[in-house]
Structures are given as structure tokens and as C-alpha cells.
Design goal:
With about 600 residues, the chain is of the alpha/beta class. It has helices at about 1-30, 50-60, 90-95, 115-130, 150-155, 190-205, 235-255, 285-290, 310-345, 420-430, 495-500, 525-540, 540-555, 555-560, 560-570, and strands spanning about 65-70, 80-85, 100-105, 140-145, 210-215, 225-230, 260-265, 275, 295-300, 350-355, 360-375, 380-400, 400-410, 415, 435, 440-455, 465-480, 485-490, 580-590. The strands form four sheets. An eight-stranded mixed β-sheet has the order 1-2-4-3-5-9-6-7. Strand 3 (about 100-105), helix 4 (about 115-130) and strand 4 form a beta-alpha-beta unit. It starts with a helix and ends with a strand. The mean pLDDT is about 95. Bound molecules: zinc ion. Zinc ion (ZN) binds near residues 110, 113 and 213.
């Protein structure tokens, strides 16, 4: 028996060795396959099919690369993720245990802006073929590329999808199969694309996330501009690393590459000379989402008028530069992220609203074109024209400092009744840890009442967004049931939890319509029946009687409106529903 076991073991080892050898041979034997041709020099961007084919081919040729698929998207196709890993291991946890950093690139969230698609294929090939010694920059970094995030939009190709852009010949459409702008969908996650993205993002936990775009707006000399995470929104140690170390490195390396870069040109006035401002982006955007998990996010915005070839090459240089940084200074990044994670776990105060401080400015060098306002031959009004024969270099103001205008102190727990399963689902796919009640129980909790809010008059990305939300707090005894959810605010996802569950946050689930059923009353009264009860209430409740009389004195319209008066009394009666306008996620403190 012992002998048999030994032979069996030898046989297993030999078979495994043969399988590994066969895999190597197969990988090598497909090296001669014809490659999908990159044609960005001819103003052509790869289609969805060509892009996936290019990565499939790389995955077959190189044992250090793999094309993975995740979930699905609104068009019914899965999201792909192409991974280059020197370790030949493609399990994120195992790779991270070896001390590797993860740089993730997201392409074609706006498929009309596809320079990242072609840049990423070119860079993946150059790295894997060790062009100019590029293999070296992968010594401690794993590169994860989402070839095309908005597949539905990428399949909707036309020469007419971007009116203000210089090529490529055909480009995809901004919205996805459900007509959603995915760069507004990270908070509500209405699309399957966003939900699958969350799966990839939390699986790989990127140290840097690069989201590739093409600009709209002003004209100037630079091919590349950058929207990074805002340092003030990150924990201090990570914000400092971004502004004092990573950003200077990126700007200097890009200058050396021949594609000098500046911050995204978002002018304070009509022209860039009026000064540029950096935004703080809320969680609906890539940068706003990444920061919730301490992932520094870098949105590249290549300039719309520059030839497609230059936009591709500038994006290529940017991704390469980010990889060089993580290879050279990855430990700094890992240390800052670890410290930031620990900071967020114990963070009690979160800023929900910010205001740009226009009294604090820096000066930056800006290479623009002279602009003039001339008579329009179309409208009869004035039109703006940039004169590219008159380039200039000037110092211009740059505004990036923000003041907090609303800060929230977190409770020990948020309590969410299981009825709100769409919210629970989104928290779960974003890595939030829960406990569940094991039995029915009544707890004294803080409840918010929505005092006032505005609603967009027309849909915004498929929803009727609420803004200017004002709340008041009440302590109430609320019954909870077996299976309801307790969310501790002592976890890695704290920033996400607060931004999504505090109703006043710009991109809270409340703002995005997940709790709209609380905004409508469900019971009313018949005036002729309620009249008797109202009379009795006034007789028995002196305080109410005085407030009622006072209101009639002060408000003539009220004094002459019988229904309004009865409504006032109904609202102060025990019949009035407590759940009306009561936000159903409760705040629980343990002492
Ligand atoms: Zn874009």
C-alpha cells in the first residue's frame, strides 16, 4: 500500500510538471500569431473586438499576463481585466502578500475619449516584450487594465459622437447601454457596469487608479492635463504624499517625456488666464469614489484638439510614469496607505460639504493661446476665438484650497432595517462589514427628519436628484427585527459609509432617490370626522391651543383656511404618521 501511494505521488508530480511544461510550450508556440494592428498614428482607435483580441493574444503569449473576466455590464458582456504580474500569480491577496503594489487603469468610461484604450494596449505589449527595458518597472508593481469599461458605449461607434474633438475617425458614445454616464454612477451604481467595477476594485484594492479621458473646453498648448484626488479629502498622510511627492514626480516626469502636463483647465472665469481651480469631486465620479477607500485616483484628460496620436502617446507616458513611481517609491505609498486605512478606521469627523477659498491662491505657469471675442457670423452675437499663431507663457492664479462647511460626527453604528435591501446590496459590494440582529429588539436611536430639500426638475443620469437637504435630529425608540443590519463605524469602509448614509452628503443614497417612499404621506383625515377630535385636543392641550391661536393671529391665510387649520391639528395629533419624512437609517451610540 505504501509503495502504491509513493508511485501515485510520483505520478501526480510528473503530471503537474508536464502540464506546466505544456503550458509554456503552448504560450511560446502562439508567439507568431498575427497581432491586432495599432493604428493610432492613422487617427484610428481599436474597436471593442480588436481590443479584447489584442489582450487575448498577449495573455496566450506571456505566462506573466492574464485576461480575466468579471460579472456583467448593461449590454450583457462581462468586464475584462488584463493583469500583468511578474510573479505569474493572479490572485490579488497572494500578490499583495509579496509586497507588490497595484496600479489600475480604467479606459473608455467615456468611449468617445478612447486614447487610453490604444495607449494601454501599446504599453502592455511594450512591457511584456521588454521594450527599452520596461520589464524592470514591474519589479514590485502589478498592472491591471480594464480595456473598456463602458462596453455598450464603445459598441455605439460613429464619426459624430464628439463634435468638438480632433479624431479618431470613429469613436464610441459617452453613455452606456442604459444611456447612463458611468462617470456619474459610482455612488448610485445604477448600472451593472458600476456594480461589476466595485467587485474588481475591492478585489484588487488598487494603490493608484488611473481613469483616462479627453477634455472639453478651452484651448491651450498642453497635450495632457490631470485631475487628481484632492489632497484635503484624503487622510493627512496620504494627502501629503500626493501633493508633496507623487504630484511633483508626475509633473516632472511628464515634462521630461516631452508631454508637459498641467492641472485640468477649469477656468474661474471665461478664459484660463482668470485662474484655474481644482475641484473636490463627490463619490459619483471616479476620483470621488477612489478617495473613499484611500486609493489615490488620477484622471488624465488629454486635450481634445491635439492629434489622436499625441493624445495616445501622452496617455501612454502618463501610465508609464505612474508605474515608474510605484516601482521607485512604492514603499512610501504602501506605508501612507496603511497609515491612512488605520486613520479612517478610527476617524469620527467627516467633512461632507466644502467651499472653495478664493482668498488662497498659488501661481502656476500656463502656456496658452491669445483669445479674442469677435463678431459671430452665425448668431450675430460675440464669439470666442483662440489664436494659435499667438502662443504665450504667463503666470496665472491656481485655486485649490477648500474650507469645510458641513462636518458630521459619526455614531457608533448605523442601523438599517432590512426593507432597504437595495442600499444593503450596494454597501455589501463595496466591502462594508455588517452584523445582523439575532432577535427582534427596540432601541433608543437618533433619527433624522428631512426638514427641507430641493429636487432636480428633470432627471439627472436616470434619477431625480435631491439637493440642499436640511435635517433635524430626534431621539426615538424604534423597533428593529431579526435580520436588520448594524453597520459599525469602526471599519475600513468608514468614509464610504458616511458619504452614502448621511443624507446631507451630495451623493448620499437619500440624494439619489433610494429613500423616496418616506417623502410621501400614506394616511390622511376626513375633515368632518376629525373636527370632533380636534375640538377635544384643543380643550385638553393648553400648549397646543396657544400655539394654534398664535399661528392664526400671525398668519391671515391660515386663519381663513379651515382645512389648513385642521391639517395643523392633525399633524400635532397622535394619528400623524411618525415615519413621514423620517430617514430610515438610524444612528446608534453605545454610551
Ligand atoms: Zn470624459
Amino acid at each position: 500500500m505504501k509503495k502504491f501511494l509513493t508511485y501515485f505521488l510520483y505520478a501526480v508530480i510528473a503530471s503537474l510538471a508536464l502540464i506546466i511544461l505544456a503550458r509554456q510550450i503552448v504560450k511560446k508556440s502562439v508567439k507568431k500569431m498575427p497581432e491586432v494592428l495599432l493604428r493610432y498614428e492613422d487617427n484610428y482607435s481599436l474597436t471593442y473586438a480588436e481590443t479584447i483580441e489584442a489582450y487575448k493574444s498577449l495573455s496566450k503569449q506571456h505566462i506573466t499576463a492574464k485576461l480575466l473576466t468579471y460579472g456583467t455590464t448593461d449590454i450583457g458582456k462581462p468586464l475584462h481585466l488584463f493583469v500583468i504580474s511578474k510573479t505569474k500569480n493572479f490572485s490579488p491577496d497572494a500578490i499583495k502578500d509579496k509586497g507588490f503594489r497595484v496600479v489600475m487603469v480604467n479606459n473608455a468610461i467615456h468611449p468617445g475619449e478612447p486614447c487610453g484604450v490604444d495607449a494601454s494596449v501599446k504599453l502592455a505589449r511594450d512591457i511584456l516584450e521588454n521594450k527599452d527595458g520596461l520589464w524592470e518597472i514591474m519589479d514590485s508593481t502589478v498592472l491591471c487594465i480594464i480595456p473598456m469599461y463602458n462596453i455598450g458605449g464603445a459598441l455605439n461607434r460613429s464619426p459624430y459622437n464628439r463634435a468638438n474633438q480632433n479624431g479618431p475617425k470613429d469613436q464610441g458614445f459617452r453613455a452606456n447601454a442604459k444611456n447612463l454616464d458611468l462617470n456619474r454612477d459610482y455612488a448610485p451604481m445604477t448600472s451593472k457596469n458600476a456594480q461589476t467595477f466595485a467587485q474588481i476594485f475591492h478585489n484588487w484594492k488598487p494603490d493608484l487608479l488611473i481613469d483616462t479621458h479627453t477634455t472639453n473646453g478651452a484651448d491651450y498648448q498642453y497635450v495632457m492635463t490631470l485631475i487628481p484626488s484632492h489632497p484635503q479629502e484624503l487622510p493627512p498622510m496620504l494627502g501629503e504624499l500626493l501633493s508633496d511627492d507623487l504630484e511633483p514626480f508626475l509633473y516632472e516626469s511628464m515634462r521630461n517625456s516631452g508631454y508637459e502636463m498641467i492641472p485640468y483647465v477649469s477656468p474661474m472665469g471665461q478664459l484660463p488666464e482668470s485662474g484655474l481651480q481644482q475641484y473636490i469631486n463627490s463619490p459619483r465620479y471616479t476620483t470621488g469614489y477612489g478617495k473613499l477607500f484611500n486609493t489615490i485616483t488620477l484622471m488624465t484628460e488629454a486635450h481634445m484638439f491635439k492629434p489622436f496620436k499625441d493624445r495616445v502617446l501622452a496617455t501612454y507616458e502618463f501610465i508609464k510614469t505612474a508605474l515608474v513611481y510605484t516601482n521607485m517609491h512604492g514603499k512610501r505609498l504602501t506605508d501612507a496607505r496603511l497609515e491612512a486605512d488605520n486613520f479612517v478606521k478610527h476617524q469620527k469627523d467627516f467633512v461632507l460639504h466644502w467651499q472653495l477659498d478664493s482668498t488662497m491662491k498659488e501661481e502656476i505657469e500656463f502656456k496658452g493661446y491669445e483669445a479674442e471675442f469677435i463678431d459671430s457670423k452665425v448668431t450675430g452675437g460675440m464669439r470666442l476665438r483662440y489664436d494659435r499663431s499667438k502662443p504665450f507663457t504667463k503666470q496665472i492664479p491656481y485655486f485649490k484650497h477648500y474650507t469645510p462647511t458641513l462636518t458630521i460626527n459619526t455614531p457608533d453604528y448605523y442601523v438599517i432595517p432590512q426593507a432597504w435591501h437595495e442600499v444593503i446590496h450596494r454597501l455589501a459590494i463595496n466591502g462594508v462589514q455588517f452584523e445582523r440582529f439575532e432577535q427582534d429588539t427596540t432601541l433608543s436611536v437618533e433619527a433624522y427628519y428631512i426638514d427641507s430639500y430641493n429636487t432636480y426638475p428633470r432627471p439627472y443620469n436616470g434619477k431625480y436628484l435631491h439637493t440642499n437637504i436640511e435635517v433635524r435630529k430626534e431621539v426615538q425608540d424604534i423597533p428593529f427585527y431579526k435580520g436588520d443590519y448594524l453597520v459599525s463605524t469602526n471599519q475600513l469602509a468608514n468614509h464610504y459609509i458616511v458619504e452614502m448614509l448621511e443624507p446631507q452628503a451630495y451623493d448620499s443614497f437619500f440624494a439619489w432617490n433610494f429613500f423616496d417612499s418616506i417623502l410621501q404621506r400614506k394616511e390622511y383625515f376626513s375633515p368632518y370626522v376629525f373636527e370632533d377630535f380636534a375640538e377635544q385636543m384643543l380643550a385638553e392641550n393648553k400648549d397646543l391651543r396657544e400655539r394654534f391661536e398664535q399661528k392664526k393671529k400671525e398668519d391671515k391665510e391660515f386663519a381663513s383656511d379651515a382645512y389648513a387649520q385642521l391639517s395643523f391639528l392633525y399633524e400635532h395629533s397622535p394619528y400623524f404618521e411618525k415615519s413621514y419624512l423620517r430617514y430610515p437609517v438610524y444612528r446608534l451610540n453605545c454610551n
